[in-house]
């Protein structure tokens, strides 16, 4: 029986480096379409439940339908859009029951992170502090509800990362995808980003104090307040 054939990589021609022909396009048309739609979502130009039609979007943006389709798929993966059978793609919408369920799941993850503060490594704790400063910088810059929501949720993601579990962080990211649009709507309406940053500083101060019971109570109260604000926003 003949020996199995071995696949061998062809050697590059003399003077030619392999992969020289590969190029990375810095910003693709799909990326630009995703960003334009994301900005419209966070600015409130596309309300929750609004259907998104490929033909109309392609005409408005001056791009191909296939590009729009790919952009919509990426935004759906972020949790900003929802695919509904026989209706197509619509802007994601939560109801108060959804918000309660997401917050309950977040509490389980973030409470685990808070409890892990003392045993977490220095890099993980430094990441929490750095995320808070990024959130504060975005509030000062007044860059809009989209970037503010992103940095806000990034801070909470670093709390989960204190557990040292990449799977728990991935779960938190999925939950944040569901909340990102609603949270941007809350920030857009209340316009008190600096007060929110101050509340997060107070939360971190309690976590850093080493009093675990107080820290657990603080994160529970913090997320209960978030549920109230987001639930009110989505119920409108």
Overview of the molecule:
By secondary structure, this protein is mainly alpha-helical. It folds into two domains: 29-91, Arc Repressor Mutant, subunit A, CATH 1.10.10; 96-234, Four Helix Bundle (Hemerythrin (Met), subunit A), CATH 1.20.120. The chain has nine helices and three strands. The chain has helices at residues 29-42, 54-61, 65-77, 96-115, 122-141, 145-161, 166-190, 193-208, 212-234, and strands spanning 51-52, 81-84, 88-91. The chain has a three-stranded antiparallel β-sheet with strand order 1-3-2. A hairpin with a 3-residue loop joins β2 and β3 (88-91). α4 (96-115) packs across α6, α5 (122-141) packs antiparallel against α6 (145-161) and α7 packs across α9. The longest helix is centred in the last third of the chain and has 25 residues, at 166-190. The protein is elongated, with a radius of gyration of 22 Å. It starts with 28 loop residues before the first helix and ends with a helix. Residues 4-10 have low confidence and may be disordered.
Q: What's this, in brief?
A:
This protein is mostly helical and 236 residues long. It has helices at 29-42, 54-61, 65-77, 96-115, 122-141, 145-161, 166-190, 193-208, 212-234; strands at residues 51-52, 81-84, 88-91.
Low-confidence stretches: 4-10
Please identify the top-level CATH class of the largest domain. Mainly Alpha
As for the number of domains, it is 2
* Quaternary structure classification: single chain
CATH architecture of the largest domain: Up-down Bundle
Structural class: mainly alpha
How far apart are the first and last residues' alpha carbons, in Å? 74 Å
Q: Going by CATH, what is the homologous superfamily of the largest domain?
A: GntR ligand-binding domain-like
Please state how the strands of the largest beta sheet are arranged side by side. 1-3-2
